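Morning run. Coffee first, then this:
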Amino acid sequence: MLTFLIVCIFYTINSPFASADKYLRWKRIPGAHGYQVQIRNAKRRIVIDKKISQNKYPAYKLPGGRYTCRVAPLNVFKKPVVWSTWSSLAVLQRKKPELLAITPRVLLSGSKNRKLQLRGKNFVGPVKVKVYANGRSIPVKKIRTRSEKVVSLSLDLRRVRENYYHIRVENANGKRVLRKKILRIRQENQMKPLSPVDTKVEVSEGKPIRFAWQKFRGADYYRFRILQKKSKGSKEILRYKTRRTEYKLNNFSKLQRGKFVWEVTPYNKKNQPVGKQVRSPFEIDAKKQAKGLQPDDIQIISPDILYKHEK
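And here it is:
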């Protein structure tokens, strides 16, 4: 008579860890005269209650979904001796995933964790996602299968080139789908000051000061300003409108010794700002300018009497 037993159930039906196995299996119990299998659906209703002779049951006949199951060995009278505890059972369908859309379709480079959402059908987790173009892959992080229709993930776009990228999704059951050039990565559209940047500017006769910045996509023109730092705030001493990405300052009459800030703001054709302004400080280097002079240091060398030319 069976007085004690342990039932070990293998319940990975159609999972990647069970290869091509389609059966619910458990260890053979010595002395058992068959087995009784019960399977409940997600609503805890028993959908399978069978007595069989082998230590396996063809669970692949069940509709895809999540179940719980238990097994009992039978005695000589075909009665259950003891039931195992209820165990989880997932029946996965080997359907090919479908990638229908992504949100957003265009991303800007530069971010460490740029979120992306995939929408489709038959996503069976845990899924694998590969984003690539021309042999280069984008690091994919935090993949989460939210449902059979939605997968969310994060991309590391800090060192990514501007291009159209393919996305490949692979289910846990090994089925794949590939969508080519479905994602576009664009370089981050952000102006940066090029020169001068946090530096001293040497003012000399005949040499203009050149201010330069990166081009901003979508800008029709730029507003350039120079501000002088004061004890309380700053004072605008120059303003200029240009379509170029540089400004050359030739007139130094408004620049005194001290600290300044140059500023650029991009505008569109509707005279609306289209991006963040960039600012960069600079300092006038007056080493070569006259300083510390006294009245006696200035000498007039012309004669005391000058003649006027008559017509």
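Residues 165 and 183 are 5 Å apart (CA to CA). Good start to the day.
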